Amino acid sequence: MLEITLGSALIYYFATQAFDIKEKPPGTVNYTEVLDSREPSFTRFHREQVNIKPAVEDQFRGIVRQAYDYSCGSAALTTLLNGYVGTRLTEQQTMNGLLRFGEYNRIVERRSFSLLDMKRFVTALGLESGGYRGEFSDLIKQGQPAIVPISYAGFKHFVVYKAYKNGRVYVADPALGNISFDQERFKQIWENNTLFLINVPEAQRQNLLALQDSDMRHVEDATVNKYALVDIQYPTFYMEKIADKASTVRRGPDLNKESDTYGQNVNTFMRLYYKRK
């Protein structure tokens, strides 16, 4: 028994000394694949270190996430100030500023902040801002991020418009993160065509809210319908044959009076179908 223990200890010592074991940087995993997929072999692996990060980091990249269910206004304003103006505010600091310079009694009554409250706080910061009404084309032509109110899923909500590209509107949502809407869908939920802009000299503008490749990883709205309604590519009888082959067979009398085998025992194919609720 002593010999086995000693031998195991020596093997472990020489193994650790023989290999150069380096600590992996945070967020690094070893990715392994077969060099030639046609010839699977344990001796022909390609291995390299790959850096990964949680998807939630991209989801809320550049966004101040709202801490309370009623604080989308303060979180959206903080996102715009930090990502476009270049401040380093927390949502709590913005909330304190909105309560101080905004209409305090009305804020408490409605449990939310208004665009007027935002304007007063931004003015206190020494910046010019304003709320406007315009068409969708006006929003795009501005070429800068803006706070826009939307009515979505039964709630009124503030998000930050980031950019428009190829028929989609990209926004920074304090509750959901970086998301996008189809152009027509956005027009439907955009509340009163209102937008809130902060005037910042071009040389001072930050680009934390600029559109990035990761923002455009979305599924087209029509994808599901396009493939769900695609025409059958094979003859119907062939598809029926495949379905019968994959089904359960039950033998019993043929109850179809118009059938040539009426009353006789025949094979019945029991198929299972998806049923929409």
Write the layout of secondary structure elements.
Elements: H1 2-18, E1 28-34, E2 45-51, H2 55-59, H3 72-85, H4 91-101, H5 104-110, H6 115-124, E3 128-133, H7 136-141, E4 146-152, E5 155-165, E6 168-173, E7 177-182, H8 183-189, E8 194-199, H9 223-228, H10 236-245, E9 248-253, E10 265-270
Antiparallel strand pairs: 1-2, 3-8, 4-5, 5-6, 6-7, 9-10
Helix pairs in contact: 3-4, 4-6
Describe this structure in words.
The protein is α+β, with helices and mostly antiparallel strands. The chain has a domain at 57-219: Cathepsin B, Chain A, CATH 3.90.70. Helices cover 34% and strands 25% of the residues. It has helices at residues 2-18, 55-59, 72-85, 91-101, 104-110, 115-124, 136-141, 183-189, 223-228, 236-245; strands at 28-34, 45-51, 128-133, 146-152, 155-165, 168-173, 177-182, 194-199, 248-253, 265-270. The strands form 4 sheets. Strands 4-5-6-7 form a 4-stranded antiparallel beta sheet. A hairpin with a 2-residue loop joins strand 4 and strand 5 (155-165). Helix 3 (72-85) crosses helix 4 (91-101) and helix 4 (91-101) packs across helix 6 (115-124). The radius of gyration is 31 Å and the shape is extended.
